[in-house]
Amino acid sequence: MKSVASEPRFARIAATIGDATRARTLSRLLDGRHYTATELAIHAGVTAATMSAHLKLMVDEHLIKVRAQGRHRYFTLADGNVAHALAALLRVADSVPADAARWQQPHMHSLRHARTCYGHMAGALGVRLRDALIEHQWVIQDETNLVQYRITPKGIAALTALGCDVSMLNVAPNMRGQSKRVLYDCMDWSERRDHFAGPLAIKLLAFFIAQHWVKQDKKSRGLVVTATGANCLKEDMQKLFSK
């Protein structure tokens, strides 16, 4: 009698993601922020009890994690691998001709221009930021891995002068003594080009928000460029990089 192979784990993960309510919840968590079960239930349009069951399953499958703070429990994506897997699925979905046209619809323009992707900047503005960082040699490719980058002395000095301390990012090894991934390419699912992900990209978005150059749209993952930001980031960010 032939033995039956056990179900691949990715089949369970795919089934977990494939449910419409869980998919809406995971899409919401792609902005990298923490949400309560109540907030996620409202976003997904289900009852609190229904959302509780979905959240438990996603925690059990290590797609999301929960953090208790006082009487509240907050949920977020488990890690960057989950975020990148979801982003890849979004790219596959949008490669279908019937869906690709939605980026041309007026209500999608702002989201395509700038949005968050697990704590870093995505969209056209994120792609422009990557191009500018490379062009002005604030970052350079890692010689051993061409999709990873490291901050140059010029970049450290320039960002520090702006008030963004990045001095420790290049020198923090992981548990195996290997260099930590500071910055790496992440395919943008609306632009079909890379933007940057990683600790430096997350720090840069937090800095942009602190400077009031961009602000988070409370109802979506969209980022709104402020008047101050528009002035600083105009002409493909030439003004920012000339400071």
What's the short version?
This protein is α+β, with helices and mostly antiparallel strands. Helices cover 47% and strands 18% of the residues.
List keywords for this structure.
4-stranded antiparallel sheet, alpha+beta, 18% strand, two-stranded antiparallel ribbon, 10 strands
Provide an overview of this structure.
- With 243 residues, the protein is α+β, with helices and mostly antiparallel strands.
- It contains 11 helices and 10 strands.
- Helix 2 crosses helix 3 and helix 3 (37-44) crosses helix 4 (48-60).
Gyration radius from CA atoms, angstroms? 20 Å
Mean pLDDT, all residues = 83
Helix content: 40-55%
Distance between the termini: 73 Å
Portion of residues in beta strands equals 15-25%
**Sheet of most strands:** 4 strands, antiparallel
The poorly predicted ranges are: 172-178
> In total, how many beta strands?
10
Shape: globular
List the helices and strands and how they pair.
Elements: H1 9-18, H2 20-29, H3 37-44, H4 48-60, E1 64-69, E2 72-77, H5 80-94, H6 97-100, H7 109-113, E3 115-117, E4 120-122, H8 123-135, E5 139-142, E6 145-151, H9 153-162, E7 183-187, E8 194-197, H10 199-210, E9 214-216, E10 223-225, H11 227-241
Antiparallel strand pairs: 1-2, 3-4, 5-6, 6-7, 7-8, 9-10
